[in-house]
Amino acid sequence: MSEPIVSLRNLARSFEQGGEVIEVLRGVDLDVMPGEIVALLGPSGSGKSTMLQAVGLLEGGFSGTIRMAGVDASNVDAATRTQLRRDHLGFIYQFHHLLPDFTALENVVIPQLLIGKPRPEAQVRASELLGALGLEHRLTHRPSQLSGGEQQRVAVARALANSPKLVLADEPTGNLDEKTSDKVFDQFLELVRGHGSAALVATHNERLAARMDRVVRLHEGHLE
Ligand SMILES: Nc1ncnc2c1ncn2[C@@H]1O[C@H](COP(=O)(O)OP(=O)(O)OP(=O)(O)O)[C@@H](O)[C@H]1O
């Protein structure tokens, strides 16, 4: 049996606000296996985004352990965290976070240049990904010239550009209407499965969750 792409043990996080301590995560255990697509369900405020931030190695302040592709990522320096993120992770947020002054194509090219891929190769890859998402006619558009669904598709292409082992998605279609959300989500699942990437997808949406390989639920700081 292969090892998990990410493994969480006793992950905990609390925040202090106005003298009060809120324990958001109280000892979360989770293994995500290579290629597995896991839905992270939970009501608003249950800690889904907090958990994704931990797995994304974006924030400190957590206790417990996070192993990524066999490496203990819990207490590493910022440079190692950045390296682990670049080597293994792709991110998709509810709002696309695309670079506003760059075209759709460039938004997918840039993350590849950051890991040292030659530009011509990066451009071919970006065109292929955007083409697979039905955006071949939108390559030179800037984000403000795209619809919400198109913007999220560019964000999907960007997240997959470096063929991450794990895609972290926080309500990836949460700002779209139901029909567009279903369509973009289908394309997202197809591409992630086609790449053999694993994914951890935070959502409120039971219908979308049912389309994934496994559903875990955050409840009172624990996973059910
Ligand atoms: N930086 C912070 N400082 C204080 N409290 C925080 C901070 N970040 C998150 N919280 C609190 O932690 C709890 C969990 O927030 P989180 O955003 O992880 O929930 P969520 O499940 O992703 O919610 P939603 O579905 O609404 O996005 C909330 O009560 C929130 O107010």
From TrEMBL:
Pfam families, per the entry: ABC_tran
What keywords does the record list, in alphabetical order?
ATP-binding, Nucleotide-binding, Transport
Kindly give the PROSITE patterns that the UniProt entry links to this protein. Answer: ABC_TRANSPORTER_1, ABC_TRANSPORTER_2
Instruction: Give the Gene Ontology MF terms in alphabetical order.
Output: ATP binding
Entry annotated with the keyword Chloroplast: no
Under the heading InterPro entries, the entry gives:
AAA+_ATPase (IPR003593), ABC_transporter-like_ATP-bd (IPR003439), ABC_transporter-like_CS (IPR017871), ABC_transpr_LolD-like (IPR015854), MacB-like_ATP-bd (IPR017911), P-loop_NTPase (IPR027417)
Domain ABC transporter residue range list: 6-224
Key word Transcription present in the record?
no
The text of the family note is: Belongs to the ABC transporter superfamily.
Protein name (record) = ABC transporter ATP-binding protein
Q: Which organism is it from?
A: Alteraurantiacibacter lauratis
